[in-house]
Amino acid sequence: MTQTPPKPWHKRTRAVHSGTRRSQYGEVSEALFLTQGFVYDTAEAAEARFIEAGPDEFIYARYGNPTVRMFEDRIAALEGTEDAFATASGMAAVNGALTSLLQAGDHVVSAKALFGSCLYILEDVLPRYGVEVSFVDGTDLDQWKAALRPDTKAVFFESISNPVLEVIDIAAVADLAHGVGALVIVDNVFATPVFQDSIALGADVVVYSATKHIDGQGRVLGGVICGTQDFIRNTAEPYLKHTGGSMSPFNAWVMLKALETVDLRCRAQAETALVLARGLEGASGLRRVIYPGLASHPQHDLALRQMEKGGTMIALEVAGGRAAAFRLLNALEIITISNNLGDAKSLVTHPATTTHQRLTEAQRDALGISEGMLRLSVGLEDAGDLLADLQQALARV
Question: Rounded distance, CA 42 to CA 225, Å?
């Protein structure tokens, strides 16, 4: 039986208890229903379920599963949406949210500062099927206003861009988009469901790579689309269940257990990120330290209005370009080189040669991704140890 949280529950409580379904055994920890299919007492029962399945009736794991449904209910409660659909990965969530909604002749406006795979969907995949996409500087409201048209079906952006950490004014963009009847789809990975209420700010649909902070321990892939029940069940679900983009029950179970600590983890990581950003700002060998929690960040005031904290991600621009950036990476002793983020372990990557390597040099320059830029995902290690590690690596550069 689904447990719906009362409104007074805080996020940390919702992340632990929302959506719980207990079997007849009354287990404390959520059960893992590792099954592909489900059985029916009679042929008539099978027929009835295929016509209309009830809230606790399931047909096939690609369509839904009790463990997956618990995760969907819990993340929807945490995000403040009516419903959610769990996907196989974060990119399945981005692709599913966009492709399920759009058709040939539709128009989309997107911020140009995006993760490389998101750019691929918007630049290559959607136009292939007749969807027109206009790109804008996400921080420039005049560009959003100029690009929006009466036939614009949706707008898409990362609330904090990967990897240069631009902060988009969700409320302002949503107001402009809703003025022409467009749906607002926000990738909220960097801001996390802990620090930002995108729906309250005006977003209609919020997507996450659950692989990142939601799992938070580098174990499994997953994604999720959060929105109204109508969008999730009548738009996203039909597309995703028939094209195979759903989350596995095992991964959903891992995500459920991870949600119990997501608030604690993200808050500790953000506190350490602020310590590191302050400790590194102005350091010899660094051209810039980019962190929304620093007063030097171009959208610092906006970040404080939209988010509780500055987040867990820092961008560092190393003087000396790629060679110097590589020397710093190779000198680190605690922080690990990896293209993942949101992990309990601090991870760092060189976007120009990894996550954004498919972009041309001109495209990277336009996005501010220099050869010296590093993207640092702050983990749960001691802040003093991490700062010392970065400082000793900088000294070698």
Answer: 34
CA distance 173 to 170: 5
Find the mean pLDDT for residues 186-208: 97
**Quick one: CATH architecture of 11-259?**
3-Layer(aba) Sandwich (3.40)
How do residues 139-192 score in pLDDT, each as one tens digit? 999 999 999 999 999 999 999 999 999 999 999 999 999 999 999 999 999 999
CATH architecture of 263-396: Alpha-Beta Complex (3.90)
- Measured over the CA atoms of residue 236, residue 239, residue 243 and residue 244, the dihedral's sign is positive
- Is the pTM above the cut of 0.90? yes
User: 2 pLDDT exceeds 50?
Assistant: no
Are the C-beta atoms of residues 351 and 375 closer than 8 Å to each other?
yes
Give the H/E segment covering residue 110: strand 107-111
Q: Amino acid identity, residue 343? A: D
Count of CA atoms in the C-beta half-sphere (13 A) of 1: 5
Q: What's the rounded Cα separation, in Å, for the pair 207 and 32? A: 24
